[in-house]
Automatic annotation (TrEMBL):
It comes from Bacillus songklensis. Gene3D superfamilies: P-loop containing nucleotide triphosphate hydrolases. It holds the Pfam family ABC_tran. The keyword Repeat applies. Residues 6-242, 253-499 form the ABC transporter domain. The keyword Glycosyltransferase does not apply. Keywords: ATP-binding, Cell membrane, Membrane, Nucleotide-binding, Repeat, Sugar transport, Translocase, Transport. This is Sugar ABC transporter ATP-binding protein. One of its GO terms (molecular function) is ATP binding.
Length: 499
């Protein structure tokens, strides 16, 4: 039998006495794309951080091509041909592709590192080898996001690599960009790389991966050939039982014959938002669809006052508002849960509780005294409601897994009880159970009379939630559809691409 490229054996890891990985076995073959799956907080990133030398295991052994290795730090990982592509882009938009790729190698090249000729030549060589059509001299900021991802990969592969780890690489990619990435992954596979692929998107796993390993609560649950396992079984392994809920649309009752809670009139902002008009009614969930770059995020940023408006009016309950900053927006009753929550939404050094109650401090404070009991109650309530995996509400937020951090941002804004809630990709990075829970929470809020706007690139989710869908293209609203008029996901996909 062929020797695996990587074997991790009996890997255990605890933090402060709490076991996060419990004797996990994991192995990847040469030329294989291996999915690593599991719910938020299952231990995926921790296992990969052990492989890349960010953490060291308490117990266990690592073998590469049959030889035992010791990985104590990131340099050891590099020496063992292990590279990781992180979900957050690490590129500098104002530099060229070549400069970005060679940026981190200062130690290896001498002072004239960005000394261009050599670095451009090397980049060209690398890109040709990878069969990617990018000009090394192109400024990264001018490239589409899909090509950023390719540049990230080229950067990871610019050092000799045998094992490549991707942590949710498609989270910010469109369908088309994802296709480009997938054909690229297939090329790497053919070249014999061992690829570890982390994602919460089931359809992708079945499309691109050969085998799948599932972790649950820090334990290895299953490793299967993708062709020999079905979606239901995968979900069952992740969840630990059958899923009792799925994304299912329910027609909801609300009136459009009343004053809209939010009305946007002729809004323009920069080049990305042009003459946008729409109304949002009490109890309504309005979905916003569109390709990456269609102006969806920019539209809500302009409404919320974080980007300047060139023209247009925002009315709340029929009253014209003068929103020039996020503070103005919050005062007017708006909330925006941003796309990039880890940067914009959380104080990572603070505890779970502090983050959740931050926007509502005035409501849990009497004079100068914090009503701690009430604050704890609220924080614990959200931890339970959104199933946030944390030891307790006092844990430092940065120690939570990626998906659980996202849930805290959501909790934080929900606690503030806004009149109009705008959510930008609310379930990116959260696991399948949490996704359905978030869908439920959003519905409950709408049922209680709130007006909700949801931007989402995940069509099943958008279809499950929306009462109405608007489609954006090049900064304009090009289509408006009643949910009941949309018969299938393909139909919506078509509306987005062919508008
Ligand atoms: N440095 C740390 N100190 C304490 N706890 C930690 C630390 N790093 C991770 N954890 C805990 O380990 C558990 C596993 O986290 P990990 O990031 O590996 O999850 P994950 O499977 O990657 O989840 P996600 O899908 O949400 O990214 C979580 O409960 C997390 O809070
Ligand atoms: Mg993770």
């Amino acid at each position: 039998m062929e020797q695996p490229m990587l074997v991790m054996k009996n890997i255990s890891k605890s933090f402060n006495g709490i076991t996060v990985l419990n004797s996990v076995d994991f192995s990847v073959k040469k030329g294989e794309v291996h999915a690593l799956m599991g719910g938020n907080g299952a231990g995926k990133s921790t296992l990969m951080k052990i492989l890349t030398g960010v953490y060291t295991a308490d117990e266990g052994d690592i073998f590469i091509e049959g030889k035992q290795v010791s990985i104590q730090n990131p340099d050891d990982a590099r020496e063992n041909y292990i590279s990781m592509i992180f979900q957050e882009f690490s590129l500098i938009p104002t530099l060229t592709v070549a400069q970005n790729i060679f940026l981190t190698r200062e130690s290896k090249t001498s002072a004239g590192l960005l000394n261009d000729k050599e670095c451009i030549a090397k980049t060209r060589e690398l890109l040709t080898e990878l069969e990617v059509d990018i000009d090394p001299n192109e400024i990264v900021g001018n490239l589409g996001v899909g090509y950023w991802q390719m540049t990230e990969i080229a950067k990871a592969l610019s050092q000799e690599t045998k094992i490549l780890i991707m942590d949710e690489p498609t989270a910010s990619l469109t369908k088309k960009e994802t296709e480009i990435l997938f054909s690229f992954i297939n090329q790497l596979k053919a070249k014999g790389y061992a690829i570890i692929y982390i994602s919460h998107r089931m359809d992708e796993i079945f499309e691109i991966c050969d085998r799948i390993t599932i972790l649950r609560d820090g334990k290895h649950v299953a490793t299967e050939n993708c062709k020999q396992i079905d979606l239901e079984t995968v979900v069952q392994h992740i969840v630990g039982s059958g899923m009792d809920k799925a994304f299912e649309w329910k027609e909801r009752a609300y009136s459009m014959d009343v004053t809209p809670v939010l009305e946007v009139k002729q809004l323009s902002s920069g080049t990305k938002v042009q003459d946008v008009n729409f109304q949002l009614f009490p109890g309504e969930i309005l979905g916003v669809a569109g390709l990456m770059g269609s102006g969806r995020t920019e539209m809500v940023r302009a409404i919320f006052g974080v980007d300047p408006k060139d023209s247009g009016d925002i009315l709340i309950n029929g009253q014209k508002q003068n929103i020039k900053s996020a503070t103005d927006a919050v005062e007017a009753g708006l909330a925006l849960i941003p796309e990039d929550r880890r940067v914009q939404g959380l104080v990572l050094e603070h505890s779970v509780k502090e983050n959740i109650i931050l926007p509502i401090l005035s409501k849990v404070t009497k004079g100068l005294l914090l009503n701690d009991k009430k604050a704890n109650e609220i924080a614990n309530g959200f931890v339970e409601k959104l199933n946030i995996k944390t030891d307790d509400i006092f844990k430092t937020t940065k120690l939570l897994s990626g998906g659980n951090q996202q849930k805290i941002v959501l909790a934080k804004w929900l606690a503030n009880d806004p009149t109009v809630l705008m959510l930008d990709e609310p379930t990116a990075g959260v696991d399948i159970v949490a996704k359905t829970e978030i869908v439920d929470v959003i519905r409950e809020l709408a049922d209680s009379g709130k007006a909700i706007l949801v931007i989402s690139s995940e069509l099943p989710e958008l279809l499950a939630l929306s009462d109405r869908v608007i489609v954006m293209h090049e900064g304009k609203i090009v289509k408006e559809l009643k949910r009941r008029e949309i018969n299938s996901e393909e139909e919506l996909q078509h509306a987005i691409q062919g508008y």
